[in-house]
Design a protein that fits this description.
Length: about 650
Amino acid sequence: MTQLAERLQRQSPPSTTSSPELVLTASALGKSYGPRRLFGDVTLQLSAGRRIALVGGNGTGKTTLIEILVGDADPDEGSITRPREMTLGYLPQDLVDTATGLVIEEVMAGAGPLADLGHRLHELEGLLSDPGADAEQVLAEYGDVQGRFEAMGGYALEAEARKVLAGLGFKDADADRPVRELSGGWRMRVALARLLLAKPDVLILDEPTNHLDVDSVAWLEQQLAAWPGALLFVSHDRDFIDAVADRVVELAEGTALEYVGGFAEFVVAREERLQRIEAAAARQARDMAKVEQFIDRFRYKATKARQVQSRIKTLEKLELIKVPDRKELVAKFAFPEPPRSSRVVAEFNDATIGYGDIPVVSHVTLAVERGQTVALVGPNGAGKTTLLRLILGELQASSGTAQLGNNVKVAMFHQHQADELDLEKTVIAAFSGGIDPGKRNLRTVLGSFGFSGDAADRKVGDLSGGERTRLALARTMIEPVNLLVLDEPTNHLDLPSCDVLEDALTAYPGTVLLVTHDRHLIRNVSDAIIDVRDGHATWHDGVPDKVLTPADPTKVTSAKGLSSKPVDPRTERRRDGAKTRQGSQDLRKKVQRLERDVAQAEAEISKLHSQLADPDIYDKPEEVHRIATQHEAAKSRGAELMKAWERAAEELDH
């Protein structure tokens, strides 16, 4: 097994755990770097069928927590418990080791014991033709190994591996290429394919969609939504989180906060939680103010001395409710008005472009008009970046024309632009170099991208990968140009940074050409889509969902060379099993959502009951009537929710 394989799939050490269901438990984890405490009291349970999205801003410790879970780092506090014989698969954001074999060999090696049987079978086949070997002994072992290999589905393994590769965007011919010939993004896909084929008990993925196109993301969603083992993943893609996760763990406030449901439910539940904390803090502040008024009023009155001292001691012992900081990266953007371009900013007229004699995209005829934001989508390798290079003049059309309009000034952001920043410069120096500030305060502008106050004076080398990407984006977007060309700008960004980018693109007064796999971003900022696939580029007004999410992402097109292969019956059985598991997961998710709704209803009933128990309220008959009406309505709703929960729980048990 290669070093990469050892990193991506590892056997956990023996554990003393006795629970057959619990896969991995993290208890009361804490981690600090010098005086800075990243997080504490983090408890997670990864069990079969549980799919957790890990979210949080830059610097909250997501990568550190993952490294602790996979055994690459040790916690300062707490412990990790793993069951005996547990397998763990891990896909980091950046691969250090690289494989040397063929793509298909590297992926199939992920099958572990089954792959080992295949290798042994191949060796025995060679020995059968060796006159010096004991033919009878070799034949006996060959029959034994072949029987086990067939029983475990070994003869369908290569077909399954090629299907996984096809789902991740590989053409069939690419499966037989050496891994070393691939770019970093495609090597990452090979590592992901290996993990999916290996089916470890616990799968941990750090930004798995970074190097995927929208088709591959949709395919991966379906695979992970039916994942039978435990899954923990980090992603900035809201749609992906909603499609895959059944709960969200947020690293915030120095600990981990767990919410049941997908991303949309997480946002609602987090807001409700913050409102409850803020309301409780406000009540505490009002109560403290009343106590302080009593102390100030009767401090020097002898007859009240005992009561005053009692209240002073109460205040001293009181634990203040800490309100979480709602500060976000979002700010108002004020871009300089770009020079006015012609109405048509970019135009393709029957343009064909390729490398050598092989066309990549043919007969493209379309026009991008001033002020539009246009997203380019389609499979990787279909020609999206090639079209961008063509319109920017970096490539020449083999036929037809592609040209920019009059007075068009361009700024380009590419995937690796953050790597070109000078690590020794401060953030403000890297941002402002070569820019004419005019009447703008560049620190204010930089603050709108999340680098306010002292953050602007940090060294670039001290920033995280996501922060560097955000800085590179800020540097690109501040240029006084009227055409922005952005190639995968969300890679390595966290969710708050994606919000910054979305708000910036919404406020940007110029024209934007955008290549991204982030469907949430496309929906929120794009006026049109150019779908690049099968050698053609098709214009779509608006954002048709059928373009962003294929109706059947598991269906492999003929371009990937697998549609003509028969489907193995065992594969069909696995797929049917996955659908069954997905149905039970949906029902379990419904039960969990109803449990949360019941808890919220009970909390509302309790709050209203406390208000009705306050004697002072009965001086206000109208207020009593209002609260009593709300109390009855809350009780009715709570009863209905409890009945719905009981029905769903009974259905789940059956």
